[in-house]
């Protein structure tokens, strides 16, 4: 009887060899060799396909890690303040009842849009970020436009956290140094924390950040409840102007709008379908925290509540709260910086083995991308006197589409030909058409309100690269 040599190499010519820590396995060839069948163009390949047998393994996160990551972008408002601590001032403009309805409504609506986004990713595994999804909807031009839009938005969000860091330092030190230096310190610290290529490591920082913001919010809520600077000054319903009312509403909407980073988080899950667990856990937690903080702080601080709400407490409590929130102020920006850098990195090396190599070229490229993004963010944050208003403008222009409009189009794309199949399908079709329409309204009105705000702020704004106190 003939014997079979088990060490004989496989007959399949397409099987490749891979060297990992001195061992050979069936995965890789040369540095730039395709990691999958080259019949598919790189942009249609899952960038992390087969990474379980390569140098850097990306798809290893558990769903509970993603909960902490998801909580960070959701806490970014369109101003430099943290979202959860800017909501009391929005409620002061709208009133308790409209404010509560809006927070709960946005919590439910963004949970649904996040779920649709997750299902679209499961349907199309090659998606890593919004530009990949845009190509499925709009073709190559859509991919390029959304790619540019999301990188710009990422950079401005990174700049927002640099400015928030400088506000924190000015508060803690009573403006003991030039604001430009505080911004530089924040940028350098954020750069160092963004050096890892995997979200798995960054997710551990997310745990620190979530505990940080929760503790800071509780300190603020308890302090304002005890100090009660203006008890009884809260109103059930207010009558704001169109400009102020829409600006306050947009602030609530953007506080829930972290969808831009969701695809990237889901792409590095060990089991992508577990994204729904993380999303629901996050939305329930954040909606409760937003509602509790906004109602309690507004009720006791009254119409004079400031944004962020830290500043409505005594100077000592404000310093304690800001010092406690440093984890979120820094790490939330790090998450945004990581996702932005990963978007560019995947675009450069998708479909090649450099994605996962532990080599000088691979890691050097990552280092250059991260350094470049933080330098640009620091320059823009210091060079634009009306930075906060310009960030609001970008949030209105891009955030509305990333969190509502595109999700409606994702559902319509996945259910083509079945819009009127049943009463449920008709209702869902109406809901997703509504999402697209409400996105257009938010985008148009948001551009108008922030445009007006920019024209007003430009008259009193600091000069570019100013050392002045920015509290």
TrEMBL record:
One Pfam family matching this protein? Aa_trans
Keyword Transmembrane assigned to the entry: answer is: yes
Domain named Amino acid transporter transmembrane is located at 76-449
Q: Which residues cross the membrane?
A: 63-84, 96-117, 145-168, 174-195, 202-226, 246-267, 279-300, 320-339, 360-384, 390-414, 426-448
Q: Does the keyword Oxidoreductase apply?
A: no
Q: Where is the composition biased (Basic and acidic residues)?
A: 1-15
Query: What keywords appear on the UniProt entry?
Result: Membrane, Transmembrane, Transmembrane helix
Membrane disposition: Multi-pass membrane protein
Give the family from UniProt.
Belongs to the amino acid/polyamine transporter 2 family.
How is this protein named in the record?
A: Transmembrane amino acid transporter protein-domain-containing protein
Q: Which organism is it from?
A: Aspergillus pseudodeflectus
Q: What's the source species' lineage?
A: Eukaryota, Fungi, Dikarya, Ascomycota, Pezizomycotina
């Amino acid at each position: 009887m003939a014997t079979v040599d088990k060490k004989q190499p496989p007959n399949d010519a397409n099987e490749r060899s891979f060297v990992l820590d001195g061992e050979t396995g069936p995965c890789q060839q040369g540095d730039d060799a395709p990691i999958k069948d080259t019949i598919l163009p790189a942009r249609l390949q899952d960038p992390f396909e087969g990474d379980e047998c390569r140098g850097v393994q990306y798809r290893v996160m558990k769903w509970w890690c993603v909960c902490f990551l998801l909580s960070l972008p959701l806490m970014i408002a369109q101003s430099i303040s943290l979202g959860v601590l800017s909501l009391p001032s929005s409620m002061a403009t709208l009133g308790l009842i409209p404010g509560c309805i809006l927070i709960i409504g946005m919590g439910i609506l963004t949970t649904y849009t996040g779920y649709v986004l997750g299902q679209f990713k499961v349907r199309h595994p090659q998606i890593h970020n919004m530009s990949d999804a845009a190509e499925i909807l709009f073709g190559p031009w859509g991919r390029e436009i959304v790619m540019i839009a999301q990188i710009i938005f990422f950079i401005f969000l990174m700049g927002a956290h640099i400015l928030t860091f400088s506000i924190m330092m000015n508060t803690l030190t009573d403006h003991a140094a030039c604001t430009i230096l505080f911004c530089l310190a924040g940028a350098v610290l954020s750069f160092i924390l963004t050096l890892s290529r995997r979200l798995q490591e960054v997710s551990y920082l997310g745990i620190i950040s979530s505990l940080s913001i929760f503790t800071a919010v509780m300190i603020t809520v308890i302090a304002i409840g005890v100090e009660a600077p203006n008890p009884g000054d809260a109103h059930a319903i207010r009558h704001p102007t169109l400009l102020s009312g829409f600006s306050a509403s947009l602030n609530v909407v953007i506080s829930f709008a972290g969808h831009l980073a969701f695809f990237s988080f889901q792409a590095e899950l060990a089991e992508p379908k577990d994204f729904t667990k993380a999303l629901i856990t996050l939305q329930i937690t954040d909606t409760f925290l937003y509602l509790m903080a906004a109602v309690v702080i507004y009720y006791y601080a009254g119409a004079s509540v400031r944004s962020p709400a830290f500043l409505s407490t005594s100077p000592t409590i404000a310093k304690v709260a800001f010092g406690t929130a440093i984890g979120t102020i820094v790490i939330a920006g790090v998450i945004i910086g990581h996702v932005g850098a990963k978007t560019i990195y995947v675009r450069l090396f998708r479909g090649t083995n450099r994605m996962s190599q532990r080599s000088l070229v691979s890691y050097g490229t990552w280092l250059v991308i991260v350094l470049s993004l933080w330098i640009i963010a620091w320059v823009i944050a210091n060079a634009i006197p009306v930075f906060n208003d310009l960030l609001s403008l970008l949030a209105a222009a891009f955030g509305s589409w990333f969190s509502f409009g595109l999700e409606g189009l994702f559902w319509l794309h996945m259910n083509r030909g079945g819009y009127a199949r049943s009463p449920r399908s008709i209702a869902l079709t109406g809901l997703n058409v509504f999402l697209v329409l409400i996105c257009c309204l938010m985008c148009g009105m948001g551009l108008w309100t922030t445009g007006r705000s920019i024209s007003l702020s430009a008259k009193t704004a600091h000069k570019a690269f100013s050392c002045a106190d920015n509290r």
